[in-house]
Specification:
With about 250 residues, the chain is an alpha/beta fold. Helices cover about 35% and strands about 20% of the residues. It has helices at about 15-25, 50-55, 70-80, 100-110, 145-155, 165-170, 185-195, 225-240; strands spanning about 5-10, 35-40, 60-65, 85-90, 95, 115, 120-125, 130, 140, 165, 195-200, 205-210. It holds the Pfam family Glycos_transf_2.
Length: about 250
């Protein structure tokens, strides 16, 4: 049976959101024959969310035993993934019911692609939703198109937390990157520079806005310039080497 592995790094302070994330997974309408596993990776010294993960029969929980950071926690979860596809679900975000089906069907319809990035709405604290425009027209995204947009704008250009990708391609690029900020973007640019991807027209997930989110914390902008410099250097290096990944 084909499997999609959903990776969720989490720390104790996000326990209040984790159950809602799990419920959004329980409500997924997967394509016929597909199954999912939820790899909950707790980043911290204690097993503070093990009980919450245990409420869901499709969850596979593990704790790091120490605090390593979100991108390392994602990579530890990645090493446990059994699916041919991996999907990122942050602990404070939610998937809409057709999210995983939309991604799987994109891979079936476009065998060349290695990644799908989902469109999102902001989920505000009062439970209202706020839309924002996609950076590109929905459809196939050829190698280099998204990365050029990032270079031109100086901004991430896509919500990286909605990524679905071929597991082996993510592993080949070393998973999520240990940049001070934007380790998820550093992975996305490697995928987008070297492989085709797809942007569905549908909104498939909700990006929760709340006071405790990492990007809203004091000091988040520190080392942001250095992180973007590393990302630009990665794009330039891939282009200089002429790296392209063959058909899946």
């Amino acid at each position: 049976m084909p499997l999609i592995s959903v990776l969720t790094p989490v720390h104790a302070e996000r326990a209040e959101f984790l159950a809602a994330a799990g419920e959004s997974l329980a409500g997924q309408k997967l394509p016929e024959g597909w199954d999912l596993e939820w790899l909950v990776q707790e980043d911290g010294p204690d097993s503070a969310v093990a009980e919450i993960a245990g409420r869901f029969p499709f969850a596979r929980y593990q704790d790091n035993g120490e605090t390593l950071g979100v991108n390392i926690a994602r990579n530890v979860a990645l090493c446990r993934a059994g699916g041919s596809l991996v999907h990122v679900l942050d602990s404070d975000d939610l998937l809409l019911p057709d999210a995983l089906r939309t991604a799987v069907e994109a891979f079936d319809a476009h065998p060349r692609i290695h990644w799908v990035t989902g469109q999102a709405h902001d989920l505000l604290p009062d439970s209202t939703r706020l839309s924002f425009a996609a950076p590109l027209e929905p459809g196939l995204i050829e190698p280099g198109v998204l990365t050029q947009l990032i270079l031109d704008s100086g901004r991430p250009a896509v919500p990286c937390a909605g990524l679905t990708a071929r597991t082996e391609t993510v592993r080949a690029f070393g998973g999520w990157v240990a940049t001070p900020r934007g380790g998820d973007l550093a992975l996305v640019v490697a995928l987008a520079e070297t492989t085709p991807g797809f942007l569905p027209p549908e909104v498939t997930w909700l990006y929760r806005r709340h006071p405790g989110q990492i990007t809203g914390q004091a000091g988040w902008t520190r080392l942001q310039a250095e992180s973007m410099a590393l990302i630009r250097q990665r794009i330039a290096a891939l282009r200089g080497l002429g790296v392209r990944v063959g058909a899946a």
